Amino acid sequence: MEYGPAGWTRKLDQGQNGRGERGNEVADGKRTNEHFCGKFVGEEDQVFIGSRGRSKMFSLFYGFWKYMFSKTEFHVLILGIDKAGKTTLLEKLKSIYSNLEGLPPDRIVPTVGLNIGRIEASNTKLVFWDLGGQPGLRSIWEKYYEEAHAVVYVIDATCPSRFEDSKSALEKVLRHEDLQGAPLLILANKQDVADSVSAEELARYLDLKKLDERVYMFEAVSAYDGMGIKESVEWLVAVMERSKRTETLRARAGPASA
Ligand SMILES: Nc1nc2c(ncn2[C@@H]2O[C@H](COP(=O)(O)OP(=O)(O)OP(=O)(O)O)[C@@H](O)[C@H]2O)c(=O)[nH]1
Ligand SMILES: [Mg+2]
């Protein structure tokens, strides 16, 4: 059941007969045994409209209402090479922002498919897609690019010997046309470890040339103790709300699906 404006309660766009006719529902959510088709349904202030007209009007009004007042939903991809800490980060996000207790690090296994995490922050809904980073799984990443509002790229800041691998995987992500204009948050993860490199050092090391025309930020985080995670989410929401890419995705989806 979807809840529409002014207490209307109904299944969106689906009549009980499967043809968009709503049979015996009335506007205040109560039900009557009379049918709408071509006649009044009792109360004087109810307007006489055929079932198809009502259905269409309701869809339009409901779509508009949803467009104006429902919380925006953003899709955020979490990418990075294997063992960077993506899934640990996702579980930490869930613990911080939802009532769900995230999995503890010792119960997290390497990702083969996709992990999804939904949170609400700054009056928006965020859906995180966490994908496996092993070399054989990286070709799957691009299947999710088209629908992503932003990318979080996680790097293990304690492991300089893998920075080169991280850098080339990230450059490939940035070259892909389906991710054009997507804001990018690069996380120097595992800051709880004493010899991890800082976000500034990591930025110097990566020396990414393709970042110029993109909104991006480097942030030092720890998926273990939560350092930097709230700042990261706040930044993501702020940039996605005003990014051109969000406008494009919204226009593509249309008002009814906002
Ligand atoms: N010290 C420390 N270890 C971390 C942190 N985040 C993740 N780890 C550890 O890093 C290892 C890899 O973590 P995962 O979250 O499985 O990494 P992943 O990026 O999801 O890896 P794939 O699913 O294979 O792509 C695990 O042993 C984690 O406990 C962190 O912030 N600090
Ligand atoms: Mg994982």
TrEMBL record:
Family (UniProt): Belongs to the small GTPase superfamily. Arf family.
Positions with a binding annotation for GTP: 80-87, 133, 189-192
Binding site for Mg(2+): 87, 111
Protein name from the UniProt record: ADP-ribosylation factor-related protein 1
SUPFAM superfamilies xrefs: P-loop containing nucleoside triphosphate hydrolases
Alphabetized InterPro entries for the sequence: P-loop_NTPase, Small_GTP-bd, Small_GTPase_ARF, Small_GTPase_ARF/SAR
UniProt keyword annotations, A-Z: ER-Golgi transport, GTP-binding, Lipoprotein, Magnesium, Metal-binding, Myristate, Nucleotide-binding, Protein transport, Transport
Pfam families in UniProt: Arf
GO molecular function: GTP binding; GTPase activity; metal ion binding
UniProt record, GO biological process: Golgi to plasma membrane protein transport; intracellular protein transport; protein localization to Golgi apparatus
Comp. bias (Basic and acidic residues): 19-28
Classification via SMART domains: ARF, RAB, SAR
NCBIfam families, alphabetized: small_GTP (TIGR00231)
Stretch list, region Disordered: 1-28
Gene Ontology CC annotations of this record: Golgi apparatus
